[in-house]
Amino acid sequence: MLTLYIIRHGETEWNKAKRMQGRLDSDLTEKGRRDAKLLGERIKDIEFKRMISSPSKRTLHTAQLVRGTRQIPVETDERLMEIDLGDWQGRVESEIRDLYPAAFDAYWNRPESYESAGGESFYDVANRVASFLEDLQKTSLEGSVLIITHAVAVKALYMLCRNAAVERIWDPPFIHGTSLTILQIDQDKKEFLLEGCMAHCE
Predict the structure, then answer these.
(1) pLDDT tens figures, 60-115
(2) What sort of enzyme, by top EC class, is this (predicted)?
(3) Quick check: bond before 172 cis, omega within 30?
(4) I need a labelling partner for 160 at 20 to 30 A (CA). Which of 48, 154, 170, 195 fits?
(5) What is the pLDDT of residue 40?
(6) Does the annotation mark 200 as catalytic?
C-alpha cells in the first residue's frame, strides 16, 4: 500500500499580495516558514521513503523546512509545478480582472472553458499530474511518500482521484499554504484519509 502525504508550499509574499505566481516565484513569508516548521513537527515521526517536490523555489524551501533533520534527498519533478498562467504571472488579481475579464471569470467560475494567454489550461495540469501519479505508482509500490506542490496541482489530484470533471476542480476543500492531504493507494483503489488539514497551525 502506498500512502502519499501531499502538501502545498507555505504562504509567499505574492500570495499575501494576491499577486499571481504560476511559474514565477516569491519568497515564503514569516508565516509560511513558521507553518512549514509546524507541519514538519507534526509529521516528524513518519518514515518517508521519498520526498518529491516541484522545482519552484517556494516548494523547495517548504520541503527543506518540513524535512527538518531527516537524511533524505528531495527529488524534483516538473510535473508538480503550478499552472503556467502565461501573461497573468506577476500581476495582482484586480489588474487581471480588469485586463482579462472573460478569462478571469472562466478561470474561477467555468474552469472547463478557461483558455490561458500564453500558459496552460486546467486540462494540461490534470494531464501532467496524472502522468506523475501513474509513474509514481510504478516506482513506489508501498510506504509513505511526501509530495510538496502547488494549489492547482493539488486540486487536479483531487479531481483525478475522484474521477471528477474539470468543472469540479474548485470543489472543497480550500488548499491553504502547508495544508496536508493524505491519499492512500491500494492498487486501483484511491482513498483520501485527510483533506486540506491545517491542524498543525491551530
Answers:
(1) 999 999 999 999 999 999 999 999 999 999 999 999 999 999 999 999 999 999 99
(2) hydrolase
(3) no
(4) 48
(5) 98
(6) no
> Which residue among the candidates 9, 61, 176, 200 is catalytic per the annotation?
9
What confidence category does residue 185 fall into, taking pLDDT thresholds of 50, 70 and 90? very high
Q: Over the chain, what HEC string results?
A: CEEEEEEECCCEHHHHCCECCCCCCCCECHHHHHHHHHHHHHCCCCCEEEEEECCCHHHHHHHHHHHCCCCCCEEECHHHCCCCCHHHCCCEHHHHHHHCHHHHHHHHHCHHHCCCCCCCCHHHHHHHHHHHHHHHHHHCCCEEEEEEECHHHHHHHHHHHCCCCHHHCCCCCCCCCCCEEEEEEECCEEEEEEEEECHHHC
pLDDT (0 to 100) of residue 154: 98
Q: What is the largest CA-CA distance in the chain?
A: 48
What is the pLDDT, as a whole number, of residue 34?
98
- Amino acid identity of residue 172, one-letter, is P
Q: Quick check: is 150 catalytic?
A: yes
Catalytic residue among 61, 150, 176, 200: 150
Domains of the chain plus CATH, in order, are 2-201 (3.40.50.1240)
